[in-house]
Specification:
ClC, CBS domain, 49% helix, 3-stranded mixed beta sheet, transport, 6% strand, CBS_dom_sf, membrane
Length: 821
């Protein structure tokens, strides 16, 4: 209940980027942003300060039982919402609208518009953000849909679009714009199109008359050496292209980090840990505001184009959440109810499935219209393998799963250690320098190797590719025997010089990406992890696939090959191994299983390869879990101390509620408010001298019989409003939380009735309740706090923060690492 983020001198929100905190290794702002105000804007104007003494004023009598006060029922920044209260308020609102709909035509139209607003919101989200938010359903946890908060109803679409149209897409106008822009700016590092500078390399050469083998050397596209020197051959031309590549990379990354630092510190990182925390009921105002949306969209393009080992899929979740949050403010029922905007975090209503299907339809239509991939397909890495896999290939697939698990565990430990060092040393004070150094190292190492020079998405696409007759890639330079070729199917062939060259280049690329990604993820630029993880696995898979292919070609008489891989047959598909390896490494880092398989076959369109993907995903998870139980996003949540209760972890310790509740035996007595004996000045004194977020209300100090629970914010707002607008309310006025207040002597000041802000049904447990049950209650009901009683008498209180600290203590972790209320 400690509310260290609340300052008694002010209720107003701060400006957006003044106070900084560490999030994912970068300095971030946790103050309230101007572009994402509290639910009721009137609060900032009516109640600017509180000093415990109140304000004298006279006005007309205000009945607190009938007229809700602006700001009552809302939450301070860095507080957890009360799910039970929010859902109760929404049910009351719905009942009132339904009952009034029978009274007049206008009320009926209002009821219809209220019911239709959810569908309209899904339409807007599908058009604007489409797929981006879908990613979080998987990242939020697979045992429950979500497991975090997102100030927004977007997850009524987001969480479920994954069920239908998940990761393969970049639907939505913003996602399409990001894809197209990133592709163009990535190619800009190597040259420019004379036919139009806005064309990337591929689009520039579409209408070229060059031959198929020279399609990348069309006259319309000029490298920087050709543009400056007039020719592209020779050592000096190579050095000039090298120099321009590094300079463009540094420019892009510098602009990205300066925009993030100067305008929207929340725009850095992946955003997935924070979104999960927000979805669980925690409030971080400004994290989903319009400035964050604008800056993250721009800097995401810059960061990806700079060539850093990062992806855009994770940050696109944050972008989609921002879109949903902004759009939610257009509809009253979502704007004024925090739980409604997080509707799918703890349960899965059927109506949201239909709405998500509708949002997915709109998003897919938008994607098809934009065609960001330039291939008229709705998947990012479309594959079309000609041969099925064989049962014996499960052995190398499982080996890839083991590699993915080992890589995932290694990456998580190394990245968390580096991020912790960034947070605890002077390194964190120089985010711009860190970004520039990592970018310079990445660009210098990447340019000489064509597989690290190209964008990571292009690399994965090439690794997934099944070699055909017309393929000119080094990966497809086999020794061809055209007499044995049947149609488009090519038999297994001996590897040529190009393949061997590609193998050692890929090996170097693998080493580079394994290590450079550790230092890149978590810097103060938007940085996703999906694509880099897939790239590591795809490279390893392709290397193994080519090795198995050559083994089968030269030793087809071995027992393991003789039954199904005869000479001249197309037995092994290295592209399939790359796809399985990508799934294994992604699963090792994120610990996804079922949803990972959905992602991969949606990404590639390869529905018949579900079994290899399942085998690799399960193996990688088992191996990684044997080393460490946390996925990368859960590890960052714990590193940053976010108040997030993981739904998948079991609590098996034999402790009781009385062991966790406050006050402890050595602590002062619990601060309570009586139902009808305290004066305004007494309550103001309690509020001024404590930092708790709320107070139990009891019958009397001696009986300690529980009446209800009242929030600190509601108390302050109601008292100040009464002093301004209600006649006769002074410091000696009695505060009454009951329907009927006790009679007072003549001449006594007016009674302040505050029953309307009292929660008459706070959740309670007995002191002997096992903590295993208490933890389960907090997880499933999303409680903010529960009260502990003994024979009906109040003993203490347990907050979500107390539960998190107790879990950390039982796991031999530092309980003080839980930073926020």
């Amino acid at each position: 209940m400690d509310q260290k983020g609340y300052h008694r001198g002010s209720f107003q929100s701060g400006t957006s980027d003044e106070d900084m905190l560490e999030i994912a290794g970068a300095s971030l702002d946790f103050s309230v942003a101007d572009d994402d105000p509290p639910l009721d804007r009137e609060m900032g104007a009516h109640f600017s300060s509180y000093n415990g003494g109140g304000m004298n004023g006279t006005s007309t009598m205000l009945d607190f039982l009938e007229e809700p006060l602006p700001g009552v029922g809302t939450y301070e920044d860095f507080n957890t919402i009360d799910w039970v209260r929010e859902k109760s308020r929404d049910r009351d609102r719905h009942r009132e609208i339904t009952s009034r709909s029978k009274e007049s035509t206008w009320a009926l139209l209002h009821s219809v518009s209220d019911a239709f607003s959810g569908w309209l919101l899904m339409l807007l989200i599908g058009l604007l953000a489409g797929r981006n938010a879908t990613l979080l359903c998987v990242l939020g946890g697979e045992s429950k849909i979500g497991g975090a908060d997102c100030d927004l109803q977007v997850f009524e679409s987001a969480h479920y679009i994954i069920l239908i149209f998940f990761f393969p897409f970049e639907p939505g106008s913003l996602a399409g714009l990001i894809d197209i822009s990133a592709h163009w700016m990535t190619d800009l590092k190597e040259g420019v199109c004379l036919a139009g500078f806005w064309f990337n390399h591929e689009h520039c050469c579409w209408k070229s008359n060059t031959t198929f083998t020279d399609r990348d050397k069309c006259p319309e596209w000029k490298s920087w050496s050709q543009l400056i020197l007039g020719h592209g051959e020779g050592a000096f031309a190579y050095v000039l292209n090298y120099f321009m590549y590094v300079i463009w990379a540094l420019m892009f990354s510098l602009l990205a980090v300066l925009l993030v630092k100067g305008f929207a510190p929340y725009a850095c990182g992946s955003g997935i840990p924070e979104i999960k925390t927000i979805l669980s009921g925690f409030i971080i105002r400004g994290y989903l505001g319009k400035w964050t949306l604008v800056i993250k969209t721009i800097t995401l393009v810059l960061a990806v184009s700079s060539g850093l080992s990062l992806g855009k899929e994770g940050p696109l979740v944050h972008v989609a959440c921002c879109c949903g949050n902004i759009l939610c403010h257009l509809f009253t029922k979502y704007r004024k109810n925090e739980a409604k905007r997080r509707e799918v975090s703890y349960y899965f209503p059927l109506k949201t499935l239909w709405r998500s299907f509708f949002a997915a339809l709109v998003a897919a239509f938008t994607l098809r219209s934009i065609n960001p991939f330039g291939n008229s397909r709705l998947v990012l890495f479309y594959v079309e393998f000609h041969m099925p896999w064989h049962l014996l290939e499960l052995v190398p697939f499982i080996l890839l799963g083991i590699f993915g698990g080992l890589w995932g565990a290694f990456f998580i430990r190394s990245n968390i250690a580096w991020c912790r060092r960034r947070k605890t040393t002077r390194l964190g004070k120089y985010p711009v320098l860190e970004v520039l150094v990592v970018t310079a190292i990445t660009a210098i190492l990447a340019f000489p190797n064509e597989y690290t020079r190209m964008s990571t998405s292009e690399l994965i696409s090439e690794l997934f590719n099944d070699c055909g007759i017309l393929d000119s890639s080094k990966l497809c330079e086999y020794v061809n025997d055209f007499n044995s070729t049947k149609g488009d199917d090519l038999p297994d062939r001996a590897a040529g010089p190009g393949v061997y060259t590609a193998m050692w280049q890929l090996a170097l690329a693998l080493i580079m990406k394994v290590f450079i990604t550790i230092f890149t993820f978590g810097m103060k630029v938007p940085s996703g992890l999906f694509i880099p993880s897939m790239a590591v696995g795809a490279i390893a898979g392709r290397l193994l696939g080519v090795a198995v292919e050559q083994l089968a070609f030269y030793h087809h008489d071995w027992a393991i090959f003789s039954g199904w891989c005869s000479p001249g047959a197309d037995c092994i598909t290295p592209g399939l191994y790359a796809m399985v390896g990508a799934a294994a490494c992604l699963g090792g880092v994120t610990r996804m299983t079922v949803s990972l398989v959905v992602i991969m076959f949606e990404l590639t369109g390869g529905l018949e390869y579900i079994v290899p993907l399942m085998a690799a995903a399960m193996t990688s998870k088992w191996v990684a879990d044997a080393i460490g139980r946390e996925g990368i996003y859960d590890a960052h949540i714990r590193l940053n101390g976010y108040p997030f209760l993981e739904a998948k972890e079991e609590f098996s310790h034999k402790t009781r509620a009385m062991d966790v509740m406050r006050p402890r035996k050595s602590d002062p007595a619990l601060t309570v408010i009586t139902q009808d004996t305290m004066k305004v000045e007494d309550v103001e004194s309690i509020v001024s001298s404590t930092t708790y977020s709320g107070y139990p209300v009891v019958v009397s100090p001696t009986s300690q019989r529980l009446v209800g629970f009242v929030l600190r914010r509601d108390l302050i707002i109601s008292i100040e409003n009464a002093r301004k607008k209600q006649d006769g309310i002074v410091s000696t006025s009695i505060i009454c939380f009951t329907d009927y207040c006790p009679p007072l002597p003549p001449g006594s000041p007016s009674v302040l009735k505050l029953r309307s802000i009292l929660d008459l049904s706070p959740f309670t447990v007995t002191d002997e309740t096992p903590m295993e049950i208490v933890v389960d209650i907090f997880r499933k009901l999303g409680l903010r706090q529960c009260l502990v009683t003994h024979n009906g008498k109040l003993l203490g209180i347990i907050t979500k923060k107390d539960v998190l600290k107790h879990i950390a203590q039982m796991a031999n972790q530092d309980p003080e690492s839980i930073l926020f209320n």
